[in-house]
């Protein structure tokens, strides 16, 4: 069965079984007999899992397999996946990177697509490049993806034709190689840096002696530069064969129709020669001279290594590895996975409890993974605090040692079972909302790990029928199995030379530890919403107004709180709550800027009413409750996805945070440690520096948008944290949005007891900060920032300020059309023609709540000496958009994907929820929503030219470059 992102083997590990009926598992004395191969679909052969009847499986005479199903989410879309059973582990030493290179070449030119026309062709069909049209290569597979919007018989037939030509008859010419190898090399360069070095070293250490240790999908410079037409064609001929390909289709069309397209366009694919068996991926091997096994585990210590990366946070990862073997995907097998998931969840909750108390580590986690069909591993990851890493490793191992020597309590098991039950029940409730793209991707992942797929209903039923299996003894046994293996290996990333040695790390893994019993869940009185203090007297609804839009109603309460309610019967089980309050960034005094970052990390965890962080976890057990917090330009926001049964309690949590906040210090201190650790990582790459500083420069160097430095974090105090956020929680207007599956009467009653019961609030946001909105001044001088990463990495940014506010939303949407025109031209110039950047892009921002502050921004990662070329190319494109209107075909390639994006998004209440944020105080947002489709899709070449003239141009822009630290001199703009 497919384990969703098998990398975690946790909450989603049970999306396994189908809807077909069968006896309860405990009525069986043994596993159900496996059906004869000829009588079951190909995916389920060798398995006793009943097939999911919503999928129609088939095989063509040439060996190609397929699976199709009907799905109407979103309406009109058909998702196509073509999976080739060949990734980087299928390459020879000389072919490293060929599987990924082929992914690019297939898009370059093929039987029905001329050289370089694929992007434009799919855009004309309404598919956006990079989102609707994409591909990916891993160690074990290559997958081509297309989400076709507004699918008709004509567009589907054309799409299958194009995709079939790409996969069955790519050109793979020397000219194609000359065009695509520089793009792949640019991708390799942009993926480099400290994080990539760590990934490579981790593979070398953990999978030593196996192909995976040296088989990154991106390949090597030598093998890519040495690729020839003949060598690439040889790799294609060896692996791109019908028997290695599966076509998966899920979407808004009849299965018979989808099946017909597969047969029509892939049925005639014939290849010569015999099939090549897949290569061996090898097994983890124990060292010849073994160190003693770590405490409580039966696994000898193998390779341990210390790696110095000055700009990365210290981290320790050790893995107990076992050989991976393809399994018979049976019910009994999956029941074992359920117990594995319980075992990991219990340990991870104990580790989190240990971290919350303060001490030696910031975070730690246990995670079982099946890795690239090469190893079955149990990974332990730790982020130590302070310079001495040994206590962190010892403390984590002590928690694990306790789990290995004593069974958990039944109370601990019941708590995790309650969480799993909710995790499996929610997909059942929201089954009708599952998009076809996800269903197709889930089947791709199942094929990759050689398992089956199933329905949410069956998952929930089997899970509940299996509960008698989940005993303390069984969890103990599976915990011991998770830490038993062929070998244990470890990698320690440290910032300081001399902090550790390979041998010291080895000794720390084998030294005895005393089991830590203190973090087991203590038995105590249950935490219940019934025992929490009331917020106040229920408030009165003073007005109910119909917005005139889709049945959305606006309520006003006597205390000034306003709410927007939209019950949506078409979204069963999905319910979202948002609460906007206060003044956001503009409310915070610039001198208090560091508290913004700390608040985003720690405000929720600081508790409310009588509940601390652990209590909040306990009270949410078995419930679907959330508590996200975000700071926006002119408002703070709580948000959560919940269920109809939990709506009243979700509203209480949000309202109580405003009315009865707690100020526990430990979450604040932990947030300080995390912020300081994170800061150092930004300087490791150009993208990291942009993540740290770009918004600061885009907002005219407003300190509230600057990532706080460690010294600034050190200057904060618990008292200052409480002062800043207590003021934010208690001031400014409140707007509540409830959209989705709920009963209006119950929702209004819950609002009266919670937000309606709050004390009267000032309807205007408090503006303690600077009211003026800073905008960067145009300049020919380039802002130069430095990074500590690879010397061949740089980033270039050029930005044109635009505007903001709700009164000009129509223009902001037209700017999105202009931005997409710019993106297409930039990709064609910088990526396709010059090959200097893998993913240049242009994006627009428009702060709806502020009168200014928006921008059009173009950026790319590239080699340092190509930064001036990027600036000149972007300037040329901008000037050409001013001088010459776009062609009608250019507009079609932009407008049709935008039309489809808006149409698909509008099929969900979440889209309207986002668009109408702030509408209770600014009703113009309701009217602007009525024109959103026309604003994004109706324009003229002359209108685009006029818009470009208004906002673009060299004299209106400013620019920024992120260069290697050793680079000297200015970055000139030609």
From TrEMBL:
<dbReference type="InterPro" id="IPR050626">
    <property type="entry name" value="Peptidase_M16"/>
</dbReference>
<protein>
    <submittedName>
        <fullName>Insulinase family protein</fullName>
    </submittedName>
</protein>
<feature type="domain" description="Peptidase M16 C-terminal">
    <location>
        <begin position="729"/>
        <end position="896"/>
    </location>
</feature>
<feature type="signal peptide">
    <location>
        <begin position="1"/>
        <end position="27"/>
    </location>
</feature>
<keyword id="KW-0645">Protease</keyword>
<dbReference type="InterPro" id="IPR007863">
    <property type="entry name" value="Peptidase_M16_C"/>
</dbReference>
<feature type="domain" description="Peptidase M16 N-terminal">
    <location>
        <begin position="76"/>
        <end position="215"/>
    </location>
</feature>
<keyword id="KW-0862">Zinc</keyword>
<keyword id="KW-0378">Hydrolase</keyword>
<keyword id="KW-0482">Metalloprotease</keyword>
<comment type="similarity">
    <text>Belongs to the peptidase M16 family.</text>
</comment>
<dbReference type="InterPro" id="IPR011765">
    <property type="entry name" value="Pept_M16_N"/>
</dbReference>
<dbReference type="Pfam" id="PF00675">
    <property type="entry name" value="Peptidase_M16"/>
</dbReference>
<dbReference type="Pfam" id="PF05193">
    <property type="entry name" value="Peptidase_M16_C"/>
</dbReference>
<keyword id="KW-0732">Signal</keyword>
<dbReference type="InterPro" id="IPR011249">
    <property type="entry name" value="Metalloenz_LuxS/M16"/>
</dbReference>
<feature type="domain" description="Peptidase M16 C-terminal">
    <location>
        <begin position="228"/>
        <end position="416"/>
    </location>
</feature>
């Amino acid at each position: 069965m497919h384990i969703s992102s098998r990398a975690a083997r946790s909450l989603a590990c049970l999306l396994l079984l189908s809807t077909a009926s069968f006896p309860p598992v405990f009525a069986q004395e043994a596993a159900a007999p496996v059906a004869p191969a000829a009588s079951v679909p190909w995916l389920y052969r060798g398995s006793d899992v009943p097939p999911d009847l919503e999928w129609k499986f088939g095989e063509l005479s040439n060996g190609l397999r397929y699976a199709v199903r009907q799905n109407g989410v979103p309406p009109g879309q058909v998702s196509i996946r073509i999976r080739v059973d060949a990734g980087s582990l299928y390459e020879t030493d000389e072919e490293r990177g060929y599987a990924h290179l082929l992914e690019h070449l297939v898009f370059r030119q093929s039987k029905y697509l001329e050289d370089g026309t694929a992007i434009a062709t799919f855009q004309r069909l309404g598919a956006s490049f990079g989102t609707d049209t994409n591909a990916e290569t891993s160690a074990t597979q290559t997958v081509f993806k297309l989400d076709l919007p507004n699918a008709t018989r004509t567009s589907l037939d054309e799409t299958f034709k194009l995709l079939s030509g790409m996969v069955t008859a790519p050109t793979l010419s020397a000219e194609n190689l000359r065009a695509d190898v520089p793009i792949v090399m640019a991708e390799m360069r942009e993926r480099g840096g400290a994080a990539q070095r760590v990934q490579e070293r981790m593979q070398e250490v953990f999978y030593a002696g196996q192909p995976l240790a040296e088989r990154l999908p991106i390949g090597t410079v030598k093998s890519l530069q040495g690729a020839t037409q003949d060598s690439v064609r040889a790799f294609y001929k060896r692996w791109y064969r019908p028997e290695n390909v599966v076509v998966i289709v899920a979407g808004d069309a009849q299965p018979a129709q989808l099946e017909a397209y597969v047969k029509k366009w892939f049925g005639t694919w014939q290849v010569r020669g015999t099939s090549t068996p897949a290569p061996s991926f090898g097994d983890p091997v124990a060292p010849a001279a073994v160190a003693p096994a770590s405490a409580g585990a039966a696994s000898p210590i193998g390779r341990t290594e210390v790696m110095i990366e000055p700009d990365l946070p210290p981290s320790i990862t050790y893995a107990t590895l076992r050989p991976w073997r393809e399994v018979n995907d049976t019910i009994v097998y999956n029941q074992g996975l359920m117990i594995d998931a319980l075992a990991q969840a219990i340990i991870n909750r104990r580790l989190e409890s240990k971290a919350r108390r303060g001490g030696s580590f910031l975070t730690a986690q246990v995670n079982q993974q099946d890795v690239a069909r090469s190893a079955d591993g149990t990974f332990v990851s730790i982020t130590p605090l302070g310079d001495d890493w040994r206590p962190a490793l010892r403390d984590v191992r002590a928690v694990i040692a306790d789990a290995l020597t004593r069974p958990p309590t039944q109370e601990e098991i019941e708590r995790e079972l309650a969480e799993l039950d909710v995790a499996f029940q929610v997909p059942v409730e929201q089954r009708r909302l599952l998009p076809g793209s996800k269903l197709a991707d889930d089947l791709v992942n199942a094929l990759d790990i050689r398992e089956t797929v199933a329905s949410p209903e069956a998952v929930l039923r089997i899970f509940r029928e299996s509960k008698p299996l989940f005993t303390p003894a069984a969890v103990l046994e599976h915990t011991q199995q998770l830490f038993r293996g062929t070998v244990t290996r470890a990698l320690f990333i440290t910032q300081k030379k001399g902090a550790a040695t390979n041998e010291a790390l080895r000794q720390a893994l084998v030294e005895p530890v005393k089991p830590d019993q203190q973090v087991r869940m203590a038995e105590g009185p249950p935490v219940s919403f019934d025992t929490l203090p009331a917020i106040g007297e229920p408030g009165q609804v003073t007005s109910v107004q119909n917005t005139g839009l889709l049945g959305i109603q606006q309520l006003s309460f006597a205390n000034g709180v306003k709410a927007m309610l939209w019950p949506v019967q078409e979204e069963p089980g999905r319910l979202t709550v948002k609460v906007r309050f206060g003044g956001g960034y503009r409310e915070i005094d610039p001198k208090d800027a560091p508290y913004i970052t700390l608040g985003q990390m720690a405000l929720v965890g600081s508790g409310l009413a009588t509940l601390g962080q652990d209590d909040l976890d306990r009270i949410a057990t078995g419930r679907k409750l959330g508590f996200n917090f975000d700071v926006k330009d002119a408002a703070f926001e709580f948000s959560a996805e919940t269920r109809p049964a939990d709506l009243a309690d979700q509203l209480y949590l949000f309202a109580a945070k405003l009315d009865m906040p707690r100020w526990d210090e430990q979450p604040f201190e932990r947030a300080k440690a995390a912020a300081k650790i994170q800061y150092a990582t930004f300087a490791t790459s150009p993208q990291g520096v942009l993540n740290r500083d770009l918004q600061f420069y885009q907002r005219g160097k407003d300190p509230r948008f600057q990532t706080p430095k460690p010294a600034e974090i050190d200057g904060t105090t618990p008292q200052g944290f409480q002062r800043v956020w207590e003021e934010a929680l208690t001031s400014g207007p409140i707007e509540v949005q409830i959209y989705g599956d709920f009963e209006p009467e119950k929702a209004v009653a819950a609002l009266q007891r919670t937000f309606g019961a709050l004390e009267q609030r000032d309807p205007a946001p408090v503006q303690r900060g600077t009211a003026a909105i800073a905008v960067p001044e145009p300049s020919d001088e380039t802002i130069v920032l430095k990074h500590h990463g690879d010397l061949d990495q740089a980033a270039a940014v050029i930005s044109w300020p635009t505007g903001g506010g709700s009164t000009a939303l129509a223009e902001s949407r037209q700017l999105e059309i202009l931005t997409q025109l710019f993106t297409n031209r930039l990709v064609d110039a910088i990526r396709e023609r010059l090959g200097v950047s893998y993913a240049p892009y242009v994006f627009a921002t428009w702060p709806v709540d502020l009168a200014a502050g928006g921008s059009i921004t173009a950026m790319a990662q590239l080699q340092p000496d190509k930064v001036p070329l990027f600036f000149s190319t972007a300037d040329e494109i901008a000037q050409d958009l001013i001088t010459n209107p776009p062609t009608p075909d250019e507009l079609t390639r932009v407008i049709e994907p935008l039309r489809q994006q808006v149409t698909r998004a509008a099929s969900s209440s979440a889209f309207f929820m986002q668009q109408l944020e702030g509408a209770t105080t600014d009703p113009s947002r309701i009217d602007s929503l009525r024109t959103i489709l026309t604003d994004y899709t109706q324009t003229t070449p002359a209108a685009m030219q006029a818009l470009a003239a208004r906002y673009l141009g060299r004299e209106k822009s400013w620019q920024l470059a992120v260069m290697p630290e050793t680079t000297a001199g200015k970055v000139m703009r030609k």
